[in-house]
Amino acid sequence: QHSYHKFRVEIHQGTPCVRFGLSALRDVGLVGAQALANNREKFGKFKNFEDFVKRGVECGLKTKSFEQIIAAGGCDCFGYNRATLTDYLPTALAEGSAINKLEEAGQISLFGGTIAQETKITEIPEWDEMTLLEKELKSLGFYWKTVPAEIIFKKKYPRVRQTPLKTALEGADSGFKEIYIPETIIRKIEYNKTKSGTPMGTM
């Protein structure tokens, strides 16, 4: 509802923030992203998911484009989880395409907002956390919704074990090769002293 085709710097609650550019999403591209942003500027915000899909089809977006926008969290504002919207997408595409054809044939008003009435979407369970993140990474190129360190690091470092910080520090001399602490990999711990003789450590 807010992104444009390019990245933008905006002020949010007094802090400069970067608004992600739609054209950077996988399978969306500059032309489709710019057309979508222009459509929203001209006709207003999307009233619901069906309205977004219908107008997106008018802008030339394909199934994969919608799938990547959903996976990136671009449709979270419509109130349904990403698995539900992906499951419902074929139905929304069929309905949107049908109404666009009727509009082109002059059988219904081009300005009637026909698709704005929201269909009751049957919700299904959200993807598991790792599936959600993998789809997000594929679309955005990075993790956004959350970064569950335990899942990611255990997948990347299957031999690394989870260790409380206190235990890790106490066991620094016990031969640990790699110590896992949430969102951190400690590979080496050294004890030293400052110039004044105060004990210190580095990780």
The total beta strand count reads: 7
Termini Cα gap: 44 Å
Integer-rounded radius of gyration: 24 Å
User: In percent terms, what proportion of residues is strand?
Assistant: 5-15%
* Helix-strand category: alpha+beta
Spans of at least 5 consecutive residues with low confidence = 110-116, 179-183
Strand order of the largest sheet: 3-4-5
* Biggest sheet descriptor: 3 strands, mixed
Total helices: the number is 7
Binned, the helix content reads 40-55%
Keywords:
203 residues; alpha+beta; 3-stranded mixed sheet
In short:
The chain has seven helices and seven strands; from the N terminus they run ββααααααβαββββ. It is α+β, with helices and mostly antiparallel strands and 203 residues long.
How would you characterize the overall build of this protein?
This protein is of the alpha+beta class. Helix content is 41%, strand content 13%. It has a three-stranded mixed sheet, with helices on one face. The protein has a two-stranded antiparallel sheet with strand order 1-2. A hairpin with a 5-residue loop joins β6 and β7. α2 (49-58) packs across α4 and α3 runs antiparallel to α4. The longest helix has 23 residues, at 82-104. It is elongated. Mean pLDDT is 79; it is low at 110-116 and 179-183.
Please specify the SSE layout and strand pairing.
Layout lengths: L7 E5 L2 E5 L9 H15 L5 H10 L4 H9 L10 H23 L24 H12 L8 H8 L4 E2 L2 H6 L8 E3 L2 E3 L3 E4 L5 E4 L1
Parallel strand pairs: 3-4
Antiparallel strand pairs: 1-2, 4-5, 6-7
